[in-house]
Design brief:
single chain; 18% strand; 235 residues; five-stranded mixed beta sheet; alpha+beta; two-stranded antiparallel sheet
Length: 235
């Protein structure tokens, strides 16, 4: 058991070092492309105001759209970079979950996804950073919404777990993740969507690690995705 624990810690350290290196790399790239993007986007919008040819207008609109897509990617890189180490304090995780659900409902572009809460009575206090943990939960929920394709259900459950832990489980009825892709989902820029920057689960992973927690993802064929997070309880 000791050897297995050491191996697990070693794998986590390797993963964290890899994410740190990738973070530095993408931060450097984002810094280099930020100013050229502003220039290209600004000039394209000026040109669009001065031409009337519909075919050229279409070309300019495509340039502006692609610039905006890259600008959003840079914003996601900034979000990843600015997710500083968490400052942990005694807190009620249910308050964070309820707050995150309220926010995600405000930004959802559909009324056909039902979010259901099944929260345990009298949850134990955890050492948490409310702001960062809310960000992690929001990123996970956004992934569930994106996978649900207009209609679906998201169930959020908390429960006690063995060994002095508390479980948070987020289960959706979306399209799921292919088994061969599961090993990559926490890597920066992994995404099955052409429109996404693929940093949501990377940010969530980093925050959960800061909380001394553990996050795993399962995706049974045709049965959506299950994100399970274990948090150590204050003893």
């Amino acid at each position: 058991r000791s050897l297995l624990h050491m191996k697990e810690l070693q794998m986590r350290l390797i993963e964290m070092e890899k994410l740190a290196s990738l973070g530095q790399l993408v931060d450097g790239i984002a810094h280099e492309v930020r100013n050229p993007l502003v220039t290209i986007g600004g000039l394209a919008r000026r040109v669009k105001e001065k031409i009337t040819d519909e075919r050229l207008q279409g070309h300019i609109n495509l340039i502006i759209h692609e610039v905006e897509r890259l600008e959003n990617l840079v914003k996601r890189v900034d979000e990843y970079k600015n997710t500083q180490g968490s400052t942990l304090k005694n807190g009620d995780i249910h308050e964070v979950i309820i707050d995150a659900v309220k926010d995600i409902k405000n930004i959802m572009q559909t009324d056909y996804i039902d979010i259901k809460l099944s929260l345990m009575q009298d949850p134990p206090l955890l050492m948490i950073d409310k702001t960062n943990l809310k960000k992690a939960i929001l990123n996970i929920l956004q992934n569930s919404i994106d996978a649900s394709d207009k209609k679906g259900e998201i169930n959020i459950t908390t429960m006690p777990s063995e060994g002095g832990y508390m479980d948070l489980v987020i289960r959706d009825t979306g399209c799921g993740i292919k088994s061969e892709d599961l090993k990559n989902i926490f890597n920066p820029f992994y995404t099955s969507k052409m429109t996404g920057a693929g940093l949501g689960l990377t940010i969530a992973y980093k925050i959960i690690q800061d909380h001394k927690g553990d996050i795993t993802v399962e995706s049974p064929d045709g049965k959506g995705t299950i994100v399970s997070i274990k948090f150590p309880v204050i003893l």
